[in-house]
Amino acid sequence: MDRRFLILSLLLQVKSETHHGGILYPRQSETRQMVSLDGLWNFVVPQANNPLQGFDEHWYKRHLKELTDVEVYMMPVPSSYNDITTSGQIRDHVGLVWYDRKFFVPKSWYQIGRVWLRFGSVSYASQVWINGQLVMSHEIGHLPFLAEVTNFLKYGKENLITVACDNTLLSDTVPQGKVDELETGRLVQLYSFDFFNYAGIDRPVTLYTTPKNYIDDISVATEVDGDVGFVDYKITYISDFNVTCRVSLIDKKGNVVAMSDEYDEPYGILEVPNAHFWWPYLMDPNPGYLYTLQVELLSEYGDLIDKYSQPIGIRSVTWTNTSLLINNRPVYLHGFGRHEDSDIRGKGLDLPLIVRDYNLIKWIGANAYRTSHYPYAEEIMDLADELGIMIIDECPSVNTEFFFDTLLVKHKNSLTELIKRDKNRPSVIMWSAANEPRTQYPIAKSYFKEVIDHIKNLDITRPTTIAEAQSVNNVESSEFVDIVSFNRYNGWYANGGNLDAIPLSVVGEATAWHEKFNKPVIMQEYGGDTLEGLHFTPEFIWSEEYQVHLMSKHFQAFDELRAKGFFIGEFIWNFADFKTAQTYTRVGGNKKGIFTRSRQPKSSAHHLRKRYWALARQLYNASVPSDLYNYVAGPVVVHDEL
Ligand code: GCB
């Protein structure tokens, strides 16, 4: 095997060393402490002629700052590394990069129980050392991983953490890619998906403690009946002596509204009379109501051993062959496909950006989005839970072209990790198993049957979908999903410059999907690139006017489809402009956003806002914002009356 591709396979061989238990979000409590390792790390790219330099020279055993034959950069964590420096080589680097930093562990943590190290995600594959010793490896970006590091740390002293991160995508990674070598010998990463392959430690890094005997995982499923809510919970824990689990449900005012029974088993059902249900944004004046499920692990003498508080929402999700229902009320999804993407930090978590995004989502009157084309940061998902935004949660399988067993294993792993992470989120109302896989190939049939069966083995409480680009007549996978989704670019990739055929095409295609599969249908992507500030009347492709008209033609189709009773959602592609690989079809990236990359509205955003609020008023009787329409003219004054 080519020495340059060795790294990824090296990383993967040690995968079994990662933790197999729960992946609960780190939270402080009476029994748990936390230290953030975010901040400025050291960052090094190996010499181009020796990609394995870090391994050859045991970089994990020394401080990167001491290296003299490579440049040592400052690198913020969390962030993608690609756009931070001024080097094109770093932006387009293929293969390994190295990070390290020193950190202090309090003396009081010695014999506190256990210390854990958790990464929100590292893209794409990584190995982690503490004080020169390997502690974990992980493959697949956009998902958290952790390991217990109790015995690797020096207490009351300085410690060194080193991370090797590899962004190489090959035919057996999720998503797939291919590496080519230019005549100059430089490696180039190729991929068919349409967003920049950002990499690095892009989400928070946390060190936290648990007692030796601890709560490992919490799983919750909720139901509603009239105004009663039911919370079905299961707790897993690690303990070397007998313990009980006391579970209390606490409302927003701090009142305990339900508790586990006297036996305090690690499973049970809480009944909540007059429950505040979790409602989607716009369907209720108080959307996104969250309770706290407080779990206490107690010794047989009643002493507190461990405590963890999990936010939960009480709601039901059900579906038929024509509709999707939350708390037994049909919902119509109106929102976006999105990306984690912004200037400079790439896919790195950025709190100002994500709060701005949710403010725009609320401003525009959307009630849903899909995490196209990978799981988003937990902090982003937390806000969806809190604000009542419905999420179609997608795993990182995008544009898969070649199907084989080792890939299937990784694809299923990504879903296992995603569902483990997001299973308790009320905002997650559907799992998306893939975006635009090449499901025209016969082999895709057995592959996706297994993928969907796998999801169903892990979670039967939510419907499944795949965002399809194939035509209704040659798709091999839609028979397995609960909800049919399709992406189509009428007036853009098909019939660019001609908008008049859109309503007929969209109505015809959506109806054909429903007639063939007898399932509810969502249009997951439609849209057209638009250069902010480019204006033409009559509308002309790439102008703001063209995007507005393209949307209006789709709105006509959507209204016709809604009247037919099986059409349950419209998602404009995309929420905001985003960066892609360099290609002559993309001017500085994909410009299909209705917001610019810096999150300012194009004309289309104002247009979409009027529709989404009109839907909210029509469907849920929501009161529309006072600034939706600008004042134009008062009542007509008849001359004779003067
Ligand atoms: C698609 C893909 C999306 C692209 C979009 C486009 O079908 O799902 O990732 O960005 O088309 O703009 O071409």
Automatic annotation (TrEMBL):
Catalytic activity: a beta-D-glucuronoside + H2O = D-glucuronate + an alcohol
Activation/inhibition comment: Inhibited by L-aspartic acid.
Start and end residues of each Glycoside hydrolase family 2 immunoglobulin-like beta-sandwich domain: 214-315
UniProt entry tagged with the keyword Cytoplasm: no
GO cellular component term, pick one: extracellular space
PROSITE patterns cross-referenced by the UniProt entry: GLYCOSYL_HYDROL_F2_1, GLYCOSYL_HYDROL_F2_2
Assigned keywords, A-Z: Glycoprotein, Glycosidase, Hydrolase, Lysosome, Signal
Sequence ranges assigned to domain Glycosyl hydrolases family 2 sugar binding in this UniProt record: 36-211
Top class in the EC scheme: hydrolase
Glycoside hydrolase family 2 catalytic domain residues: 320-615
One GO molecular-function entry: carbohydrate binding
EC number: 3.2.1.31
A Pfam family recorded for this sequence: Glyco_hydro_2
Subcellular location field: Lysosome
Gene Ontology terms: biological process: carbohydrate metabolic process; glucuronoside catabolic process
Protein family according to the UniProt entry: Belongs to the glycosyl hydrolase 2 family.
Subunit structure of this chain's protein: Homotetramer.
UniProt function note: Plays an important role in the degradation of dermatan and keratan sulfates.
NCBIfam families found in the cross-reference section: PRK10150.1 (NF007538)
Name of the molecule in the record: Beta-glucuronidase
Species: Zophobas morio
Species lineage: Eukaryota, Metazoa, Ecdysozoa, Arthropoda, Hexapoda
